[in-house]
């Protein structure tokens, strides 16, 4: 595993903390990946292709770095959900191989979940998402212009306001689809932000 190098004062590149669902949806759109389209909640092939196109552009741009943690919590989730033959996992391995990663530390609590500030801990109710938030916040603290990229998880809409309050933006690749899905779960009159 590559580790950070260079002086601490060097500019930290722009980065993305890529939620696992992005890698899954993109892998389902890739003919070479064993991940099947029915394994994602995104049933529209054009929408899966949009996520694939975003990930392909991310992979090919050396100025856009992935955010990963030295303790391997984020990649551990990727590895748990994807095979080494899935496009999404291969993208992250290419970023590591080319040293296009902002490496951060994520502090786990006694249960192994990432520690977040109290205001965020109450807003990020999905314990698995906390490592993603903690890693993205650590990248921001290093000076990287970091966003958290999401394709299909409506939980990010639930905590979007709290994340914005600490300077973390969620980039929803399928925003209209996601909002419609959120309203299906919570009702047409419900508000997420």
- Distance between termini? 39 Å
Helix content bin: 40-55%
Average of pLDDT: 92
Order of helices and strands: EHHEHHEHHEHHEH
What fraction of residues sit in β-strands?
5-15%
Total count of helical runs of at least 4 residues: 9
Strand order of the largest sheet: 3-2-1-4-5
User: Which class best fits the helix and strand makeup?
Assistant: alpha/beta
Question: Number of DSSP strands?
Answer: 5
Instruction: Specify Rg, calculated over alpha carbons.
Output: 16 Å
Walk me through what this model shows.
The termini are far apart. Helix 1 crosses helix 4 (87-97). The model is unreliable at 1-9 (pLDDT under 50). By secondary structure, the protein is α/β, with parallel strands linked by helices. It is built from 9 helices and 5 strands, in the order βααβααβααβααβα. Strands 3-2-1-4-5 form a 5-stranded parallel beta sheet. The longest helix has 16 residues, at 45-60.
Short description:
The protein is of the alpha/beta class and 193 residues long.
List the helices and strands and how they pair.
Layout lengths: L14 E4 L1 H10 L15 H16 L4 E5 L3 H9 L5 H11 L3 E4 L13 H6 L6 H12 L4 E5 L4 H4 L1 H6 L3 E4 L2 H12 L7
Parallel strand pairs: 1-2, 1-4, 2-3, 4-5
